[in-house]
Design a protein that fits this description.
about 900 residues; Immunoglobulin-like; 4 domains; 13-stranded mixed beta sheet; about 5% helix; 6 helices; 13-stranded antiparallel beta sheet
Length: about 900
């Protein structure tokens, strides 16, 4: 053995290399000098693939196994190091890592697992065998003192070993190992997962390869199937995609610190993708079946796996779209305390080797993934609210979830990103998880937590709630569209649902309630759970409850539409609660008075800031309302189309309160009788509810009532043109009760002209549009000044005919600042005496009032005799809203009468009046 000469090979076909090495050590001579070669460490051969037989090579493409989702008989890797002239490798290999193609998977649970102590002792059980390894090594010639070029070829015995499936060390999902006689130690093959956006592909590392003897080549042959306790099971499964030839990468590192690597692409790609089975199921099980209740849900996607090694496994899932039932939507109540996780899924290449760090407030559920590659229950984690990509809720990127499942024992982490799309019109939710890892799983279970802050709420309508899905495989099989359904009931216990109620409660009060006083108005609506959702309201305030428009700077467009009004336009505050459950989301905002909106003279811009609702930014939620004035009662009518869904999240409005609290703006009625606030409500289902709440001011009887009424005419009259009459009402400064009714009785000298009455406007025409009345029915004008409007109300006095039922009424149509008020009069003629009354004057403060009935061919009034002969009196009754009455015999001032000259009066006349003045002189 020690007499091998240069240029000759020393062979031993019977001895193991360990024995050979021992004999060589006995023949140590002078060591050989080995020149250092920079970067000489490299691989001259690298092949890998799934094969039909254990001897397949790149030169024989037909020997490669290509059936997608099948189980190849063998999986092989083969590498060889570059050698120098002596046959020794140029570097001592320490570690080799092999990255296998995406989708190619190994099941470490297909066989029992051997303990390290067993391998170190008597050996592993036969049923843990998963392959074999063939090694070629070189014995270092420096030990022999031989010259370069002398090659000691390894003996056949001891160069091949069985590979066993081992219990993996902590932090790794799988391990294999072998013990071969040429090495004094056990060689470990540790498997792992490459983390790129979740599970990307599997790899294994042959670690701590012994330095001596020097490894030259390794051919590792894994068996595609293994004999487990339940029979033969698949150990290797092919990818279920047919994207062409697949590449396996190798990287090696030497003890000298050099590295080498390479890649091998199979000569043929996977095939047969069209025949791969793909029959997944989807099931959604709610935690709570009660309608309109906050709800958790278990969403389970199951992909059946085929344990038959001779068959095809199910395709791996590529894209998943799961659409929850109609009406099962995001619950705004969940936003309270909700946070977003900034520890988003890793970008490609970044890796995730440590657990995520998300705040507790971002957790909305848990996840469990069952995969054949790990023991049951190993891969679990949480579902987090992820940071929005966009602050625009209409972009589709507002809602994201982050699914992170960890198996620390096995060093596996799955990080997935879910896009949650909420339909902008209905709120229906679709969650998309795209480009899933090409790793088989049998069950993917999301448990969205139940409780008051669950992210979901059940449909309002009872009945069958159906979940739809679209699941796309990596294979060429068509997408599957499994669905499941559950029943939404009345009480969560299976009770049948009655027709959906729509019965909201309303309140309206002022503080203080003193009649005629400046006040604040509080208006509220409450909707109980299970009620239909509110979409529109039209509220009529009590008569006399008005606001002083001149006290506010009106907000114009586009500021009103965009939520940009200033404090000068603010008249109050608003508060809403939203969502299902015992702790709805509470938001507050501001109400602004605006210029004309929706065809009404005034409007509201109600702005609720929602820039920070949990992790979401909904900007400013602006609700508009139109403010009209009823033309016959002057009652304020506020009409609004309420938002029912914002950013794809149905609001599920629970309460609405408005507090009109601007100082010196709102005025109480001066009528303290029982009044009402009347509202018409419309639901999203089209139901209509009329609701009325009581309202009553107090202390009205203390209000003074001292209107000043004056009347005047002109002595210039004629049979053709009749006479003129002007009536004026004025109020002294200070709080006063408002007028409720007025009645005047004209003197006989001013009778109504029948010819003019006969030209009255038909009632139907007037009621349809007073402006359409014939010109000859317009017999005068009226003007009113009120502190609640910036300008005066003016308009025509029109005779309106009611057929033969009565004399025509003299109605006053008053318009200004976009407001129209109609005062309906009543005319009566008896014994040539004309009376006119207005029995229902709106409870609105008036500064001045004037009615002018001019003379002319079609004047209202005629004249009998001279109006200057004797005083003209007009009996007047003015009643207040608080019940007080002022009656007076109003003298009609007559202008244009001839003046009496003093010289026509006798001395006797002057003496008589002087004595009369002395008699009535007050005593001191």
């Amino acid at each position: 053995m020690c007499q091998c000469m240069e240029g000759f090979a020393c062979r031993s076909s019977r001895w193991g290399l360990v024995a050979l090495l021992a004999s060589l050590l006995a023949c140590v001579g002078a060591p050989l000098a080995t020149p250092a070669l920079a970067n000489a460490f490299e691989l001259t051969k690298w092949e890998a693939g799934t094969c039909i037989n254990s001897g397949c090579t790149a030169s024989k493409p037909s020997e490669f196994y290509t059936q997608a989702a099948g189980h190849p008989p063998y999986g092989i890797t083969d590498f060889r190091l570059k050698t120098e002239g002596s046959g020794a490798p140029e570097g001592h290999i320490e570690q080799v890592r092999v990255d296998i193609p995406k989708g190619l998977s190994v099941d470490p649970l297909a066989t029992p697992q051997c303990k390290l102590s067993e391998l170190e002792g008597a050996g592993c059980p036969p049923d843990t065998q998963v392959g074999k390894v063939q090694l070629t090594a070189h014995v270092g010639l420096e030990i022999l003192g031989l010259k370069p070029g002398v090659t000691i070829e390894p003996p056949e015995p001891g160069s091949e070993a069985i590979v066993y499936n081992m219990e993996p060390p902590p932090g790794h999902p799988l391990e294999a190992a072998f013990k071969v006689s040429i090495f004094e130690t056990i060689v470990h093959i540790v498997g792992g997962i490459q983390y790129v956006g979740g599970i990307d592909h599997e790899f294994f590392t042959i670690k701590e390869i012994p330095k001596n003897p020097e490894l030259i080549e390794s051919r590792l042959i894994f068996e595609g199937t293994a004999l487990g306790p339940g029979g033969t099971l698949p150990f290797i499964t092919m990818p279920s995609t047919c994207l062409g030839p697949q590449t396996t990468y190798v990287s090696a590192r030497s003890y000298e610190g050099e590295s080498a690597g390479g890649s091998f692409t199979t000569p043929v790609g996977a095939s047969g993708c069209g025949g791969i089975p793909f029959k997944p199921t989807v099931k959604v099980t709610p935690t709570e079946s009660k309608s309109d209740a906050p709800d958790g849900a278990t969403i389970k996607v199951e992909v059946p796996q085929n344990p038959d090694p001779s068959g095809l496994d199910s395709s791996t899932l590529k894209d998943a779209h799961v659409t929850l039932p109609e009406g099962m939507t995001l619950n705004p109540a969940a936003a309270s305390g909700l946070e977003a996780c900034a520890d988003a899924p890793p970008s490609p290449g970044s890796g995730r080797l440590i657990p995520v760090s998300c705040p507790p407030g971002s957790i909305i559920g848990t996840v469990t993934i069952e995969t054949p590659d790990l023991p049951p229950g190993s891969l679990t984690g949480n579902v987090y609210v992820d940071q929005p990509y966009s602050t625009n809720p209409e972009s589709g990127d507002e809602y994201r979830i982050f699914i992170d499942a960890e198996a620390p024992r096995y060093g596996v982490s799955v990080s997935l990103e879910g896009h949650v799309f909420a339909d902008a019109a209905t709120g229906r939710l679709t969650t998309a998880v795209l480009e899933n890892p090409q790793v088989p799983f049998s069950d993917f279970i999301l448990d969205l937590r139940a409780g008051s802050h669950t992210p979901l709420a059940n449909p309002l309508a009872c009945g069958l709630a159906t979940t739809n899905s679209n699941l796309t495989p990596y294979s060429d099989a068509p997408a599957a569209e499994p669905f499941s359904a559950f029943v939404v009931d009345f009480d969560g216990k299976g009770a049948a649902c009655p027709p959906l109620p729509f019965a909201l409660t309303q309140s309206a009060t002022t503080s203080p309630a003193t009649g005629g006083a400046n006040t604040s108005l509080s208006f509220g609506l409450i909707r109980g759970e299970g009620q239909q959702y509110l979409s529109k309201l039209s509220t009529v305030l009590p008569p006399g409850l008005v606001g002083k428009i001149p006290a506010v700077t009106l907000c114009g467009e586009p500021q009103a539409a965009g939520g940009g009004c200033t404090a000068a336009s603010q008249i109050g505050t608003v508060a809403v609660t939203l969502g299902s459950g015992p702790t709805p989301l509470a938001l507050t905002g501001t109400a602004y008075l605006t210029t004309s909106y929706g065809g009404a003279p005034y409007g509201l811009s109600v702005v609720v800031p929602a820039e920070k609702v949990g992790p979401y930014d909904y900007g400013r939620i602006v609700t508009r309302a139109a403010i009209n004035v009823d033309p016959h009662t002057a009652r304020i009518v506020v009409t609004s189309q309420l938002p029912t869904i914002v950013g794809g999240a149905p609001l599920r409005l629970r309460s609405l309160s408005v507090n009109v609290n601007r100082p010196n703006f709102t005025i109480n009625p001066t009528d303290c009788s029982r009044l009402t606030t009347d509202t018409s409500l419309t639901s999203t289902f089209g139901a209509v509810q009329s609701v009325s709440s009581p309202f009553q001011a107090s202390g009205c009887e203390a209000l003074p009532f001292a209107p000043k009424l004056k009347a005047s005419t002109n002595a210039k009259t004629s049979k053709a043109d009749g006479a003129i009459l002007v009536v004026k009402v004025a109020y002294p400064p200070g709080a006063q009760a408002n007028i409720e009714s007025v009645k005047v009785v004209l003197p006989k000298q001013l009778p109504a002209r029948i010819s003019t009455l006969n030209k009255a406007c038909p009632a139907a025409t007037f009621e349809a549009n007073p402006a359409a009345c014939p010109p000859l029915s317009r017999v005068g004008t009226a003007t009113v000044a009120t502190p609640v409007l910036p300008g005066k109300l003016t308009g025509p006095a029109i005779f309106v005919s009611h057929g033969g039922a009565a004399f025509p009424d003299l109605d006053l149509v008053l318009s200004g600042d976009g407001v129209t008020v109609i005062l309906v009069g009543n005319t009566n003629i008896a014994k040539a005496v004309t009376s006119s009354s207005y029995a229902s004057v709106p409870d609105v403060p008036v500064s001045s009032f004037e009615v002018r009935l001019p003379r002319g061919r079609d004047s209202v009034l005629g004249a009998v005799g001279s109006l200057c002969k004797k005083p003209l009196f007009m009996p007047t009754t003015i009643a207040a809203q608080n019940g007080k009455v002022v009656k007076q015999r109003t003298r009609i001032a007559v202008s244009g009468c001839p003046k009496h000259k003093s010289r026509h009066r006798s001395k006797h006349h002057h003496k008589r009046h002087a004595r009369r003045r002395a008699v009535h002189k007050p005593s001191r």
